[in-house]
Amino acid sequence: MTILVTGAAGFIGSNFVLDWFSQSKEDLVSLDLLTYAGNLENLSSLNDNPYHHFVQGNISDRDLVSSLLKKYQVRAIVNFAAESHVDRSIHESKDFIDTNIVGTYNLLESARSYWNDLDQNLKQDFRFLHISSDEVYGSLDLTDPPSNESDPYKPNSPYSASKAASDHLVRAWFQTYKLPVLTVNSANNYGPYQFPEKLIPLCILNALKGKPLPIYGDGQQIRDWLYVKDHSAAIREILKQGQIGDTYNVGGWHEKTNLEVVETLCAILDELKPKSNGKRYSDQIIFVKDRPGHDRRYAIDASKLESDLGWRPQETFETGLRKTVIWYLENLNWVDHAASAEYQHWVKKYYA
Ligand code: NAD
Ligand code: DAU
Questions:
Q1: pLDDT at residue 287 is higher than 90
Q2: In this structure, are residues 147 and 113 in contact, taking their beta carbons and an 8 Å threshold?
Q3: Which pLDDT score, from 0 to 100, does residue 173 have?
Q4: What is the pLDDT of residue 259?
Q5: Hey, how many other C-beta atoms are within 10 angstroms of the C-beta on 207?
Q6: Ligand 2: which of 258, 260, 265 to mutate, most ligand atoms within 8 Å of CB?
Q7: Distance 182 CA to ligand 2 centre (A)
Q8: Among the atoms of ligand 1, which is closest to the Cα of residue 36?
Q9: CA 158–ligand 1 middle distance (angstroms)
Q10: Residue 98's pLDDT band (boundaries 50, 70, 90)?
C-alpha cells in the first residue's frame, strides 16, 4: 500500500514527506505541479529512496490521478496542493479558484471513483486527508477565544475563501458519498523550505541582504505560529487515529504580533550573525502600506487534538524560530534556487 501526497514539493508538503520517510518504509507518491512554489530540491535527499516516487502533474488531471491511485494501490491521499500566498490571491485570484476549489473537487472525484471500486476492507481503511487553514474562520477580536472546530466560516481574502470552499466540498463528499475524509485546519507554519515570499523567510533574507523588513500597517496583527515539523506529527496522528468526517485544528499556542515576530528574528540574527557595523537588524524594520482586508487576529484552539489524539506541539516559538534562522543561514544556496525568475518578476510588479 501507498500514500499519495499532493503539493509534496512545496513547503509543508516536503517537510511532511521527509518526516514520513524518517519513520516509515511505506511507498509514497509525491504529486506536484511544480508551480513557482514547488521545488524538487526539497526532496533531493530521497533521490535514491526506492519507496519514493515523484510525479509532476496537476491534482485536476483525473486520468493521471486515477492511474496513480490504481497503479500504487493508494490507501490514503494527503492533499497539500494549493495556491497558498494571500498577497498573490489579492492581485491574481484565478489560480486560487482553479487549484484550491476546482482542483480539490477533481481530486475528490478521482478519489471517490477509485474508493467506490475497492474491496470492503480496503474501502474501510481508505482516507482522504485535506489540509486547510485557520484563515477560514476569519478575523478575531483581541478578547475572542481562539477558533475551534465548530466556529462558523468567515473568510475574508480570495485565498481564504478558496480554502473555505474546498473544505465545504470535502465535507459534502463525506456527508453525501461517505468518502472517508479528514480535514486539518492549521495556523501559520514556519520552518525549513518555506518560500521566501512569506513573512519569516522574507525578513531573514532581507535582513541578511541589508534590505528593509516591510511590516504591513501597524504590525499589530496577530498570528498563531506552528513549527512545521509539529504540523507533520499532527497530520500523521490524525491520519492514523482521526475520526472519519471530523475536522482537527492544529496550532502552536503561540500568538504573536507581526512586529514581535520580526523583532525576535532580528534578535536571533544579532546573536548568530552580528553585523560588521555594530548596528542591529531591527534598524531595518519599516512600516509599509497595509494588505487590503488584512485580518487582525488568528488564533487556534487545538485542544480537541490534544484531548482526542494526544498531540501537543513540541517546539516553543523561540526554539522553532531559532532552528529556522539557523536553517536559512546554512541553506542560502537553496534560497537562490527557489527564488525563480517568475518570482523576481512578481515581486517587482506588485511589491515595487
Ligand atoms: P506552498 O505554496 O509552499 O506549496 C504548495 C505546493 O502545491 C507547491 O509545491 C505547488 O507546486 C503545488 N501545487 C500548486 N498547484 C498544484 C496543482 N494544481 N496540482 C498539484 N500541485 C500543485 O504551500 P504550503 O505553505 O506548503 O501550504 C500547503 C498547504 O497547507 C496548502 O493547502 C495551504 O493552504 C495549507 N496551509 C498552509 C499554511 C502555511 O502557513 N504555510 C498554514 C495553514 C494551511
Ligand atoms: O494562517 C494560516 C495561513 O498562513 C496559511 O493558510 C497561508 O497559506 C500562509 O501563507 C499564511 O498566511 P499569512 O498571510 O498569515 O502569511 P504571510 O507570511 O504572508 O504573512 C504573515 C503576516 O505578516 C500577515 O499578517 C501579513 C504580514 N506581512 C507579510 C509579509 C509577506 C507583513 O507584515 N510583511 C510582509 O512582507
A1: yes
A2: no
A3: 99
A4: 98
A5: 26
A6: 258
A7: 25
A8: 11
A9: 15
A10: very high
Nearest residue (CA) to ligand 2, atom 34? 215
Q: What is the pLDDT of residue 344?
A: 73
- Rounded to the nearest angstrom, the distance between the alpha carbon of 59 and the centre of ligand 2 is 25
Residue 99 beta carbon below 6 angstroms from any ligand 1 atom: yes
User: Would the CB of 163 count as within 6 Å of ligand 1?
Assistant: yes
CATH code matching the domain that covers 2-190+228-252+294-314, chosen among 2.40.40.20, 3.40.50.150, 3.40.50.261, 3.40.50.720: 3.40.50.720
Compute the Cα dihedral for 293, 224, 239, 152 and give only its sign.
negative
Whether 159 is catalytic: yes
pLDDT computed for residue 1 by the predictor: 85
Assess whether pLDDT exceeds 70 at residue 352. no
Greater confidence (88 vs 1) lies with 88
Q: What is the pLDDT of residue 348?
A: 74
Q: Which of 247, 232, 11, 238 is nearest to 152 (CA)?
A: 247
- Residue 191 backbone class (left: φ over 0; alpha: ψ -120 to 50; beta: rest): left
| Structure confidence at residue 338 (pLDDT) | 84
Q: Is the CB of 29 under 6 A from ligand 2?
A: no
Per-residue pLDDT, averaged over 61-78, amounts to: 98
Ligand at shortest distance from the CA of 231: 1
Q: How many residues does the chain have?
A: 352
Strand intervals (E) in 217-313: 222-227, 247-250, 255-257, 285-288
Q: Where are the domains of the chain?
A: 2-190+228-252+294-314
Ligand 1 centroid from CA 12, angstroms:
7
| Mean pLDDT calculated for residue range 311-326 | 98
Which three cell numbers, joined as nine digits, stand for 341? 525568475
